């Protein structure tokens, strides 16, 4: 099975400073791997028109519903999520992670999860800018993200197989 994350409305390449926050330049967003020594998946610049990631995962049906696991999925059963990690360069010139958004898989409607298991594709669609114009962070659940079952192999832009 796969999870496709479709991000839009990115916040830009600069995250301005604020109280207790130094601000960051050259902002990028990527999917954070579960393994600490692995590299983030496909960083996209914060001013890109959109961001798209496709994650391979394993789906297991159980009494508690669908459980997804894989190298990009974090958390325990019933509390799984995917991290979108924001990194940039601070005022001292050091690049590092400064924010993360948790796409909460336990917030996927069970009927959508079951349909996605049947089609082989779960699709998350979300804006990557928060209400203050900064990179999206914290736990992300509907309505901030829309989950749907997709058709595996379908091009997300053209809709063709």
Layout: helices, strands, pairs:
Layout: E1 2-8, E2 25-31, E3 41-45, E4 50-56, E5 58-62, E6 65-69, E7 81-89, E8 95-104, H1 110-119, E9 121-127, E10 138-140, E11 145-149
Parallel strand pairs: 1-9, 8-10
Antiparallel strand pairs: 1-4, 2-3, 2-7, 5-6, 7-8, 9-11
Organism: Streptomyces katrae
Pfam families: DUF5990 (PF19452)
Protein name: DUF5990 family protein
**How does the overall form come out from the CA principal axes?**
elongated
As a percent range, the share of helical residues equals: under 10%
Low-confidence stretches: none
Instruction: Report the C-alpha radius of gyration, rounded.
Output: 16 Å
Organism: Streptomyces katrae
Pfam families: DUF5990
Protein name: DUF5990 family protein
InterPro entries: DUF5990
Key terms:
1 helix; elongated; DUF5990; DUF5990 family protein; single chain; 5-stranded mixed sheet; 161 residues; 6% helix; mainly beta; 4-stranded mixed sheet
Please provide a brief summary of the model:
With 161 residues, the chain is mainly beta. The protein has one domain (2-149). The protein contains 1 helix and 11 strands.
